[in-house]
Amino acid sequence: MDLTKSALLTDLYQLNMLQAYLEQGETAEAVFEFFVRRLPARRGFLIAAGLEQALDFLQDFRFSREELDWLEASGRFSEAFLRKLEALRFTGDVEAMPEGQAFFANEPILRVTAPLAEAQLVESRLINILHYQTLVASKAARMRLAAPGKSLVDFGFRRAHGAEAGLMAARASYIAGFAGTATVLAGALFGIPLYGTMAHSFIETFDDEAAAFEAFARARPDGLILLIDTYDAEAAARKVVSLAPKLKAAGINVAGVRLDSGDLVALSRRVRRILDDGGLAGTIIFASGGLDEDDLHAFARQGAPIDGYGLGTSLTTSSDVPALDCVYKLEEYAGLARLKASPGKATWPGRKQVWRSFDADGRMVGDVLSLESDAQSGKPLLVPAMRAGRRLKPSPTLDEIRARAREDLERLPEPLRRLESGAAYPVEVAEPLRRLAKEVERRLGLAEKPA
Length: 451
What we know:
Oligomer: single chain
Largest sheet: 7 strands, antiparallel
Domain Nicotinate phosphoribosyltransferase N-terminal: 8-130
CATH superfamily of the largest domain: nicotinate phosphoribosyltransferase
Radius of gyration: 26 Å
Number of domains: 2
Protein name: Nicotinate phosphoribosyltransferase
Keywords: Glycosyltransferase, Ligase, Phosphoprotein, Pyridine nucleotide biosynthesis, Transferase
Domain Nicotinate/nicotinamide phosphoribosyltransferase: 152-331
EC number: 6.3.4.21
């Protein structure tokens, strides 16, 4: 089985519901939308990511012979149902926000319109794909905003929650503005620039730190960055200064040094002075070691002479906000609008669109959430992505997606760009959508309205 494409990447209740739907003849067209119910306290905005993998999944969706044999052997499902699964393909339509787009609570970033069985069965994997990349892209965007002008690199594969997560984190962080990744397979799959220095173990292998520096420099001279805090960072910086003329004679330039521990502000200042006094003013300082956007923001405020950062655990786990309250909800079935009225989880019914307005400087000033049929002023954010189960156009390049994210980050209101606590963005729910919600409530005999 291809683990990333398997139709069994779903929850059992999806298959349970599917068999019941088909036995009852519930096969009409359904509309589902993926959105985030509410923003976490530390997220004033989110960045949409994962659409390419979601479309790949939908376009290639099918049960393999091996998967069908396993389902049959489980004894859970009828033979007639399994025959229908064998023929099942995704034939629906998709509207979506392009990857790299900033969005806010209750705004759908993907809409699926398809026969009920198809639209329902893909729910779990779509949430899985869109949630994680959006989570990491949003975290990476905060880091990008906290460290303007600095080079940021994804160092997080080893702490990611599995191989796919590590690869998708590299992709999502690159979309949000990172310079590249240390994950080699991400470079091979996505063309993301690769960055790597050295580990403390390399230095420890040699009895002489300077000899370790020289051995590494001669083996890997291009973009040479030496790790200098294995023992004493200041002493190591002086060794780099002493070694630099010898390396230069061999055509090797010391591009940078890396600090991975300690008081990085104070240490970077002392190391910067040593390098400058030693004629290495062009040698950069790169820092790593459990950093997040709060650290980057603090370093920027203090004017730390650090030129770039490697971000690991806090990026790939989004450690401060490890999950988003995202859902994929039925909004219409058989031509009738649907909603959920559960306390705290109520939804707005119908096929929706988001319109965004900008000020004279091109900055975002507010969004309107309404029915797709209720044309509003502003730019509509959801655009057609698939028709009848096939993509409408070739996928954008990763650099094109990255450019869109950069543009959206530049267009955020200043309080959001500054990551100010409590900064909010206005999203208006239009009156036609509110009226439809009341109509559906009356039809269902409900009193509670979406919140």
